[in-house]
Design goal:
alpha+beta; nine-stranded mixed β-sheet; 7 helices; 9 strands; 30% strand; elongated
């Protein structure tokens, strides 16, 4: 769904997007705000290319206009399809993998797609969509909690380890998905798979652990 153009008549959408862009200083400013190229935005405005649903949502959020108006030129919310667009946020899924075994990370990672979550569900959990990203787990050290190939969503605003939780961390130049447990003496780094030994990091070395964020959601295949 995320990669498909909007599923309704978009006649005149280019004119409406151009009007919306004027609210934030023009097309160049809007393209930077929604993280697409100026060339791509110009093609949409010229109606040479149909916008994706998440692009319309981003434009609406950036310019303060109605998604319904952008999509079909109507503020009355008569279109259920357009109205429902406003209820979703999109989290980027990167093609790099976070190793839950040896540890690896591609710093030049590209966005594969964007995962759709209802805005309500994210708000209910106190999550800010702008602080979220998703990657895949590679390895079996967290088997029981996370399996090889699972997609995990990381909240980059949660870097302070309080109590216990699963986090993505950078340690010795590698990224790991691990359970962290705050103790009186420091932090324990725990693998769910008992074949992997736990590590204890004393208080005076905690700064050597870079916490990328807390894992707040995961998904896996059942077949």
């Amino acid at each position: 769904m995320n990669d498909s153009p909007v599923p309704f008549n978009t006649n005149g959408i280019g004119t409406r997007i151009e009007e919306a862009a004027a609210k934030v200083g023009g097309k160049r400013g809007l393209s930077k705000m929604i993280d697409i190229s100026e060339a791509q935005l110009y093609r949409i405005i010229a109606e040479e290319s149909s916008p994706k649903i998440e692009t319309l949502v981003a434009i609406a959020n950036a310019t303060g206009v109605s998604v319904t108006w952008l999509a079909i030129g109507d503020n009355s919310a008569e279109s259920d399809s357009a109205e429902h667009i406003q209820e979703y946020d999109f989290v980027p899924l990167y093609d790099a993998q976070c190793s839950a075994g040896n540890g690896s990370w591609n710093e030049n990672a590209q966005v594969l797609t964007k995962l759709a979550f209802t805005s309500y569900s994210l708000r209910k959990k106190g999550l800010d969509p702008k602080m979220l990203s998703a990657i895949r787990v590679d390895g079996d050290s967290m088997e029981g909690d996370l399996s090889d190939g699972d997609a995990v969503m990381v909240d980059h605003s949660k870097t302070d380890v309080k109590g216990e939780g699963i986090y993505v961390i950078r340690l010795d130049g590698h990224l790991y998905a691990k359970r962290l447990q705050r103790t009186f003496d420091g932090i324990d780094i725990i693998s769910t798979n008992k074949a992997y030994k736990a590590m204890s990091v004393p208080k005076d070395r905690i700064e050597e652990i870079e916490v990328i964020g807390q894992v707040v959601w995961s998904a896996s295949w059942c077949i």
